[in-house]
Amino acid sequence: MRIIVSGGGTGGHIYPAMALIKRLQERDMIESVLYVGTEKGLESKIVTRENIPFKTIKISGFKRKLTLQNVKVLQMFFSSIGKSKKIIREFKPDVVVGTGGYVSSAVVYAAHTLKIPTVIHEQNTIAGITNKFLGHFVNKIVIAFKQAEDQFPEKQKIVFAGNPRAQEAAAIKKNDRLKDFKLDANKPTVLIFGGSRGATPINKAVIAALPDFAKADFQMMFVTGRVHYDGVIKQIDDKYLQARNIAILPYIDNMPEILPDLKLIVGRSGATSIAEITALGLPAIFIPSPYVTHDHQTVNANSVAENGAAKVIAESDLTADKLFNNVASIMNDQQVQAKMSQASKEIGVPDASDKLIAVLTGLINKS
Ligand SMILES: CC(=O)N[C@H]1[C@@H](OP(=O)(O)OP(=O)(O)OC[C@H]2O[C@@H](n3ccc(=O)[nH]c3=O)[C@H](O)[C@@H]2O)O[C@H](CO)[C@@H](O)[C@@H]1O
Q1: pLDDT at position 207
Q2: Does the beta carbon of 278 sit less than 6 angstroms from any atom of ligand 1?
Q3: In which pathway does it act (predicted)?
């Protein structure tokens, strides 16, 4: 198939798109692929690194308040639709897929006006503005949480398929990557991170809890987020930087490769992280970001916690003690781990990419 994929801004929108492309390549289903993103978004780094053909359009998000800047944003939106149409006419895709982030609004809308089959993928329990807008026009709306069904009035278009990144994560078996971070491959390990960009409140709590983590019987990987790394390192006493059971890193380039080596994940409840964690049946502690639209991370986190697969700590309640004690209560109790792990597996969708691909081929065959 000839396919255009567009999604951008944060890793949570980009990685599912990349996982879909990877799976299509594995199944030898791609005649030609093009990723459309923005120069400024994280996608310009992630996509080009994987040697996927990449084109950019200029577009930015609307401000929530009524401001003059929104007039500019609107102008940019219309001109980005024009540019998207040009890209689509040249590439001649069989299908166009949007995975969220404002860049996909122009690309998918342009494809719709050119009568190309279109699909959006919504990763969250609560749909983003872009996907809510696009839901009116696209042929299929693919969701990753059953709870997202209420978000779209166009019920007949909705298909539940999970998140493609789940399948990518599930395909990787334990491969002792912990040694790359100077950790012991045989010791139970917890990973703590704040989403694809890192999160200052989580970083603060981890820094304050380092004396406890250094004494623990388990190991801890602390991923700060690239932009926070230097600032975090400056605040940490050398003895914790040298501690043999602690590894501190700015970012993990290939998260699915590390996940099978872990016993517990602590972090934000971004939808793509949740898909990866549950595909592997890992227990989690979520500290939802309160700064996202409609508090959707809390809804994401609760949907996993209701099933017994995760605990949730509100960011406003987060302290070093609370963080460490919650981590220790799971890391030091194999029965709790096993129970949470089973519950996590039950909600994972390890064949999510194939489910999404079935939607694409169904549409292409019909058109
Ligand atoms: C602040 C914000 O707007 N967050 C949103 C964003 O989150 P964000 O981009 O942080 O989201 P997710 O948790 O969904 O995904 C993070 C992705 O980055 C990867 N990763 C992370 C850290 C690292 O060091 N290495 C690495 O590879 C994870 O494995 C995962 O694939 O998009 C998600 C949609 O999917 C939403 O649910 C989140 O609410």
Answers
A1: 98
A2: no
A3: Cell wall biogenesis; peptidoglycan biosynthesis
List the CATH number of the domain containing 281.
3.40.50.2000
Our answer on whether the CB atom of 166 is closer than 6 Å to any ligand 1 atom is no
Model pTM score: 0.90
Mean of pLDDT values over 350-367: 96
Are 190 and 139 members of one domain?
no
273 lines ligand 1 (CB under 6 A): yes
How far is ligand 1, taken at its centre, from the CA of residue 367, in Å? 34
* Judgement on whether residues 240 and 315 belong to the same structural domain of the protein: yes
Above 90 in pLDDT, residue 79?
yes
Q: Indicate which atom in ligand 1 lies nearest the CA of residue 296.
A: 39
Q: Are residues 215 and 86 in the same domain?
A: no
pLDDT bucket at 16, cuts 50 / 70 / 90: very high
Ligand 1 nearest-atom number relative to CA 289: 1
Pairing relationship of beta strands 32-37 and 264-267 according to DSSP bridges: unpaired
Could you read off the pLDDT of 228-257 as tens digits, one per residue? 999 999 999 999 999 999 999 999 988 989
Full residue range of the structural domain in which residue 295 is found: 170-347
**What is the whole-number distance in angstroms between the Cα of residue 270 and the centre of ligand 1?**
5
218 and 154 share a domain? no
139 with 271, same domain: the answer is no
Rounded to the nearest angstrom, the distance between the alpha carbon of 114 and the centre of ligand 1 is: 32
Name the residue at shortest CA distance from atom 3 of ligand 1: 292
Confidence (pLDDT) at 9: 87
Q: What total number of domains does the chain contain?
A: 2
63-78: pLDDT as tens digits: 777 677 888 888 999 9
Residues 86 and 223 in one domain: no
